[in-house]
Amino acid sequence: MAGRSVLILVSIFSFLNASTIVGNWLFDNSFAIKRHQEYRSVYNSLDGMQIIISKDGSYKIPNKGGGKWMRVANGYRLLSASGKTMSASIIPAAKLQIIQKTSRGIISLYFKKSALKERGVGSYIYLDRVYKQKKLIYDNGYLYYLFLSNGTFFSYASPKESVNKEEIKSKGDRLKYSFLGDKIVMRGPFRVTIKAHNREIITTSQGDTLYLQQ
Prior knowledge:
Helix content: 10-25%
Oligomer: single chain
Structural class: alpha+beta
Distance between the termini: 66 Å
Number of helices: 4
Strand content: 35-45%
Radius of gyration: 21 Å
Shape: elongated
Largest sheet: 8 strands, antiparallel, barrel
Number of strands: 16
Strand order of the largest sheet: 1-2-3-4-5-6-7-8
Order of helices and strands: HEHHEEEEEEEEEEHEEEEE
């Protein structure tokens, strides 16, 4: 009987802890896809996204921006710095549901309570430094990557055996990435996962290996 009481108390505590909007939230990709298969591509592009909601009425999405939040009759309202308004609520599955209007219609995003991933991407890879694939790729030359601290990534192919970051920024494809603590996920037409090895070598899920350009 005592053990059952402890379990009940733990369950109540967990519910109360999850029922407040304040805290660190991590996008729950698998939960979202189970609910809305039709938005799989949208959800995959948000994998690793975090939202930090503070008691002072502000919220922050690392590498994206932030804004203010407030209580309303049926939950919460989030107002971004750009003026976009989103509604939010805690649903029975102990998830933070954020509803927003997009070009594809009204989409629900789902987040779970999670410890803030404090390890910065700069401790995982070199930022604002050029990575180069040593082997030629098809007829395009060498593959080059460049990562910036704001979640921006550049991919560039050139027949040159060495390029500088200014050329990559001006001529390369500009994409977005998310850092998940132990890997990097590229956001774009295709989902590409990148692993770093001692910061100087990176490998991709497509089989590419790039080295820090000296």
